[in-house]
Structures are given as structure tokens and as C-alpha cells.
Amino acid sequence: MTELSAHEVLTTTRTVRRRLDLDRPVDLDLIRQALSTALQAPSGSNAQRWHFLVITDADQRAAIGEYYRRAAEAYFQTAESAGNQPHEDPNRQRTQQRVRNSSEHLAQNMGRVPVLVIPAIETPNVTELPAGNQSGLWGSILPAAWSYMLAARNLGLAAAWTTLHLKYEREVAELLGLPPTVHQAALIPTAHHTGDGFKPAPRQPLDEVLHLNRW
């Protein structure tokens, strides 16, 4: 495997759904390497209250996959779901439909993905998160979770950023034995990928989203 440049990693780390290899096992050492890189991410006050649950047990993966499928099928009925949002640009509309199709594929197969990674953050002595702005809390786990995906990409693995399972966060926490002070941030299915490599995705021109000095 040829190591990728930082630019290649940053521009080709895709949310991979349909091309996850459901049959090829993943060496746990690769997951450990990616997570070791993730631990270099920033953490508020350097508290490092992050945790990463790595689920490889077939029964547990199937159970989590079923919760994800239920949440996904409900989400697909909403106006916010990809494919349900009309776009004047036909290219954008086709892209959204592809996202919808691949999302449905992942929803049906989440429980078959070889490795499921759940990044979580601990709030000692606090079981209910405070109302209002929680950016400081989630800013201490989400960068690490994304760093994990970047590191996995560099190691030849593919992953997908998902959060729909959080509709059943308590049920998944009970399944995995999480204490009430540990809060899940995402569900990242990880596997080898089928087909060739990845290229940068089409994105809006920078000048459409860049605001210099004020809106």
C-alpha cells in the first residue's frame, strides 16, 4: 500500500456505503493504528474524556444494525432525507438520488459490516447533557472521530459517518453496557472497500460559501 499525501487523504476520504466489503475481515491492528492516530486530535482542556467502542461480535453488530435500519427507514420518510429535497440543478438532484440509494443499501447491511466503531465522550457525574450550546463538549470527540476516518483511509480502509442510530442511543448503550455518563457521538462502519480508489467529490465553488469579514 502506498501512503497517501495529506492532501490526498483530506480530499478523498469519502462516506462509503455501497462499496464497503461486507465479506473481507478487517485486521484489528489496522483499527488500533487508526485510533492511535485519532488520539492526537484536540480535546477541550486536554481532558481526553473520549472513548471508542469497537464492535466486531456478529450478534452485537446485527443488533446495532437493526436499530440503525429502523432509524434510517423513519428518516427516509422525512423531507430532510437525501432524495426528498428538490434541486433546480439536475446534476445535484442526481447526486442526491445516488446518496439516497447508497444510504438505503447501508441501512439494510449495517449489521454485516465487519467493524463498527462508536466514538463517545464521558461527562463525569453528569448523566443528562445541559441545554444550550454543547459545542465545547462535542468538539472534544468529533475531531478525533474524523481523524479516525482519515487514518483509516490512509491504511486502505473505508468508512462512513453516520448518526441515525442515536434515535436508539439508550438501547444501544444498554446493549454495549455503557454507563449513563458516556454519550455516543456517531456510528462509523469500517471495512475494506471494493473497486478502485476514491477521488474528490464535487462541491460548491468556494466563493459561494466564503464570507470575508461579515455575511
Automatic annotation (TrEMBL):
| A Pfam short name | Nitroreductase
Keywords for this protein: Oxidoreductase
Matching SUPFAM superfamilies: FMN-dependent nitroreductase-like
Q: Does the keyword Coiled coil apply?
A: no
Q: Which spans does this entry mark as compositional bias, Polar residues?
A: 93-103
Amino-acid biosynthesis listed as a keyword: no
Which molecular function terms from Gene Ontology are attached? oxidoreductase activity
User: Which source organism?
Assistant: Crossiella cryophila
The entry's protein name is: Nitroreductase
Task: Give the similarity note.
Answer: Belongs to the nitroreductase family.
Domain Nitroreductase residues, every copy: 13-185
